[in-house]
């Protein structure tokens, strides 16, 4: 649980939902964050008067049906009875063959209630997030259906035969992850000086195909789901991401991290799912004993522990809690000698439970956080058992494992996570205690396990923010109840406030559920590479509404709100739900539980107060001029030159392969379609106002294509079998960056008529070049090269007319170089001389001859930036940057700042919230970029800075 230091980066009509909210709330975030993908509302079918039906979006199947009391087969298994009901009511559900197209996932039984979850298959292939829920009641030998909810996509028509080879899909998935975690800089850690190092670099990330999956956009996109795992060679941190690669074109259309952390980690700091934990011990005749422990706070608490007769010692193993329901146990493991990398994706070797010669734990066990972790895990288990009748996290008595005290590279690890099987708690640092020392943190992580075993909300975009919101809500509810805090206490809504060593609770708490955030003021549109699409950034908008419900619903019975939210989670929500669907689920659950009209109004009013209302996405505006809207693209960049812009665009529901368009930067005229609509993904465009060049991802290779803006034939300039990006064009010469199979990077160019590229570094493995820019016949780029005793890195220019290179004058000893920019007067680049800081880099400038090197913006001191992209004109240099901070919030997201060439002026280019990415100088002080503020990916521009925001 690393507290993030900023780094790279009622019934009826009130339940209506905005067209396209649903699946788009998650999937659209893969565009820059398209939080909504439009689709036509299906007309609701006529129903019995008592039945309340909420139509689905882009589907004929309703998103929610309640108020039912329809007979079902009492003798059949619950899943069979559920599917028979859906088949018998085809006119309502429009599911042609539930027996064929819906497979059982889970049946949850609570008293007479039965909740059946069914996974959609399209022609036998799993549909991502396609899950439908049937709620039934069985008693006195009879069974009735009481309602349904979820997402079944009736508009899917895509074929299910892949035309891209699986191994190619794996390679492109790995390449995509590598580019995401390491593409912003070229640094000394990227050196591959030997064959052994090349092999190691190639093995740093590996991919494994998990079969075909239909991504439910429009008619559906057939993809390979590839899980990429390994290590980020630059940071040493573990990587675990799911990448969905189009099985007909080979382009990664969706990509996100899988780990569920307490706070947003630094980029590439994700932990991975474990391999296998020890099996639960066999049943014992000594089910345990009682002991005590001293918590971090000094409070003495009772502990359920185990006495090993053979070893004559006590261990933090709890057999008592689950003794009546299962053979499983609650363990607390000593992981103080374990690096987070070894606790992520595997069970660390040699791990042992905390032990003691006496049944009373204090001292070392207190300082390590073991007492808090063991006690708190028991409290969370008891809460779910007593309040919700749930036996452990999976509802079936699963073993609860807590690993306490992990570190990162021998230093502090200030984070905690649930990895699908266990909780892992960092050791803390000088500001934070060990992360297990706050009950709401433990409750948060364990609730991730509950969510995973109920609605299984996908951990990205809005559904991921809901996942975090629910974990926060229940973690806080458990903590507030245990401490006896009043809901009107100003600090009652804080998460992690008990971890503070030296500061006041509010100063170091991770989040505040009572922060009053709303969709209209505070929702932040970000990419999946930032906080998995805002899962932490946007969570308190929804958890704040739940907090208000808990405070206002029934102060004498706070568990009423808890039971309401749990019922919505366990019996209504499905994996791709967004804010609007989740609101509908809670409102429907309130009716189902028999809440009074007044109480139901409290629920609705709470959501309204936080802006969680139908159509909320439409209320977000920007202060820039939109050139081209609703692009529905992901990570494909944009470009400007010669008075024109170029970018990629999908269709309105994001289901089509991307096409390249071009238009005028002054907004006049109609954008022109440049690329063919041939099923390939056309991406990374560049233009000089005369020609557009771009990369086209195909079934076997990647082509660099070009076409005149005025019209004419499309030419294939070069065919590559590795990834290329960072394209530029000027007077027919094309510059690009290629990635070799060993992770090396090389800048090449194609002059008119060239069949093969010329590499500025000769394509040698012992060298590396990247991050090019092009102007007036000169290329600027970052270069790794061997020095007398070590590799060095610098910025170099290449004269296309003469082949002469010029190394820019170096200041200090750069460890990494970021994006370059070249103009008619200067070369600009980003430089990192102190990798131990929070990611700050200098913006550096030299003349074209490599003289007069100076910093436009310093790497350290007041106002130092954390830039990761750069574009320049003769009048200004614009950087994509973050600001150093201890929390993820709007101002620490990627913003655009413009500096004069001499550094005397620095202004914010736009006051838009959310992320602004891929800036491209259009001349003078005008810049175009991709903006995620509205929840769509829009191409926007400003001709001058916005001033003070």
Automatic annotation (TrEMBL):
Protein's name according to its UniProt entry: M4 family metallopeptidase
Q: Which domain of life is it from?
A: Bacteria
- Known InterPro entries for this protein? Peptidase_M4, Peptidase_M4/M1_CTD_sf, Peptidase_M4_C_domain, Peptidase_M4_domain, Zinc_Metalloprotease_M4
Into which family does the record put it?
Belongs to the peptidase M4 family.
Any signal peptide, and if so, which residues? Answer: 1-42
PANTHER family reported in the protein's UniProt record: BACILLOLYSIN
Starting at the broadest rank, the lineage of the source organism is: Bacteria, Bacillati, Actinomycetota, Actinomycetes, Kitasatosporales
Q: Residue ranges of the Peptidase M4 C-terminal domain?
A: 455-612
């Amino acid at each position: 649980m690393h507290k993030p230091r900023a780094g790279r980066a009622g019934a009826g009509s009130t339940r209506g939902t905005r067209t396209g909210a649903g699946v788009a709330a998650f999937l659209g975030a893969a565009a820059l964050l398209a939080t909504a993908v439009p689709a036509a509302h299906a007309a609701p079918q006529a129903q019995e008067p008592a039945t309340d039906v909420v139509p689905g979006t882009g589907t004929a199947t309703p998103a929610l049906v309640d108020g039912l009391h329809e007979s079902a087969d009492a003798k059949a298994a619950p899943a069979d009875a559920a599917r028979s009901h859906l088949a018998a009511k085809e006119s309502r559900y429009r599911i042609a063959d539930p027996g064929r197209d819906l497979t059982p996932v889970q049946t949850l039984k609570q008293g007479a209630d039965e909740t059946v979850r069914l996974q959609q298959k399209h022609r036998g292939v799993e549909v991502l997030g396609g899950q439908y829920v049937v709620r039934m009641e069985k008693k006195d030998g009879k069974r009735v259906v009481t309602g349904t909810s979820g997402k079944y996509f009736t508009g899917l028509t895509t074929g299910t035969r892949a035309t891209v080879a699986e191994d190619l899909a794996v390679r492109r998935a790995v390449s995509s992850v590598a580019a995401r975690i390491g593409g912003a800089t070229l640094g000394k850690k990227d050196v591959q000086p030997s064959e052994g190092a090349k092999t190691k670099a190639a093995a740093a990330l590996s991919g494994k195909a998990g079969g075909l999956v239909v991504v439910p956009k429009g008619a559906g996109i057939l993809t390979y789901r590839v899980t990429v795992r390994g290590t980020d060679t630059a940071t040493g941190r573990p990587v675990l991401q799911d990448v969905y690669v189009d099985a007909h074109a080979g382009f990664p259309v969706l990509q996100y991290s899988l780990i569920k952390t307490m706070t947003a980690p630094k980029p590439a700091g994700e932990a991975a799912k474990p391999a296998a934990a020890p099996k639960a011990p066999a049943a014992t005749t000594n089910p345990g004993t009682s002991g005590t422990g001293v918590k971090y706070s000094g409070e003495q608490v009772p502990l359920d522990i185990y006495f090993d007769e053979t070893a004559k010692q006590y261990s933090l193993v709890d057999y008592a809690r689950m003794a009546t329901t299962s053979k499983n146990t609650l363990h607390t493991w000593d992981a103080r000698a374990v690096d987070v990398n070894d606790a992520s994706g595997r069970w660390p070797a040699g791990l042992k439970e905390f032990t003691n010669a006496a049944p009373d734990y204090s001292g070392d066990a207190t300082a390590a956080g073991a007492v808090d972790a063991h006690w708190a895990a028991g409290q969370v288990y008891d809460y779910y058992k007593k309040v919700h009748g749930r036996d452990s996290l999976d509802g079936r008595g699963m073993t609860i494992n807590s690993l306490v005290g992990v570190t990162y590279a021998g230093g502090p690890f200030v984070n905690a996570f649930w990895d699908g099987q266990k909780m892992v708690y960092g050791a803390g640092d000088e500001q934070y205690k060990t992360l297990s020392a706050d009950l709401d943190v433990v409750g948060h992580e364990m609730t991730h396990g509950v969510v995973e075993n109920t609605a299984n909300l996908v951990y990205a975009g809005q559904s991921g923010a809901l996942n975090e919101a629910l974990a926060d809500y229940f973690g806080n509810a458990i903590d507030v109840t245990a401490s006896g805090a009043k809901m009107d206490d100003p600090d009652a809504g804080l998460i992690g406030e008990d971890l503070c060593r030296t500061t006041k609770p509010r100063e170091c708490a991770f989040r505040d559920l009572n922060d009053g955030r709303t969709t209209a003021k505070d929702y932040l549109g970000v990419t999946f590479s930032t906080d998995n699409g805002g899962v932490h950034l946007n969570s308190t908008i929804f958890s704040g509404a739940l907090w208000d419900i808990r405070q206002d619903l029934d102060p004498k019975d706070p568990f009423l709100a808890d039971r309401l939210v749990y019922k919505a989670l366990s019996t209504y929500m499905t994996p791709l739900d967004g804010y609007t669907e989740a609101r509908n689920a809670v409102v429907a659950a309130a009716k189902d539980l028999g809440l009074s009209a007044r109480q139901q109004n409290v629920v609705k009013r709470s959501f309204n107060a936080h802006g969680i209302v139908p159509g909320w996405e439409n209320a977000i505006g920007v202060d820039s001029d939109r050139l081209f809207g609703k692009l529905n693209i992901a990570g494909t960049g944009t470009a400007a030159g010669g008075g024109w812009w170029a970018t990629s665009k999908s269709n309105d529901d994001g289901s089509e392969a991307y096409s390249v368009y071009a238009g005028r930067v002054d907004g006049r005229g109609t954008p022109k379609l440049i690329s063919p609509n041939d099923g390939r993904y056309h991406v990374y465009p560049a233009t000089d106002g005369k020609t557009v060049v771009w990369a086209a991802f195909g079934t076997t290779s990647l082509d660099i294509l070009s076409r005149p803006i005025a019209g004419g034939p499309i030419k294939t300039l070069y065919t590559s079998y590795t990834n290329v990006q960072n394209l530029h064009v000027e007077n027919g010469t094309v510059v690009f960056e290629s990635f070799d199979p060993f992770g090396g990077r090389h800048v090449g160019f194609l002059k008119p008529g060239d069949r093969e590229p010329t590499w500025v570094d000769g394509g040698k493995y012992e060298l590396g070049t990247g991050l090019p820019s092009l102007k007036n016949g000169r290329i600027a780029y970052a270069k790794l090269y061997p020095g007398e005793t070590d590799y060095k890195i610098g910025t170099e220019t290449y004269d296309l007319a003469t082949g002469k290179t010029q190394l820019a004058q170096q200041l200090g000893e750069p460890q990494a170089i970021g994006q370059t920019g070249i103009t008619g007067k200067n070369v600009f680049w980003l430089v990192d001389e102190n990798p131990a800081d929070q990611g700050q880099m200098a913006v550096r400038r030299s003349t074209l001859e490599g003289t007069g090197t100076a910093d436009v913006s310093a790497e350290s001191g007041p106002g130092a930036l954390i830039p990761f992209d750069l574009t320049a004109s003769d009048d200004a240099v614009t950087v994509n940057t973050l600001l150093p901070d201890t929390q993820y919030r709007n101002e620490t997201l990627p913003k655009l700042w413009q500096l004069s060439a001499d550094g005397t002026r620095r202004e914010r280019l736009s006051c838009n919230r959310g992320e602004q990415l891929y800036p491209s100088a259009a001349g003078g002080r005008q810049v175009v970029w991709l903006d995620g503020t509205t929840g769509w990916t829009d191409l926007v521009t400003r001709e001058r800075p916005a001033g003070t925001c």
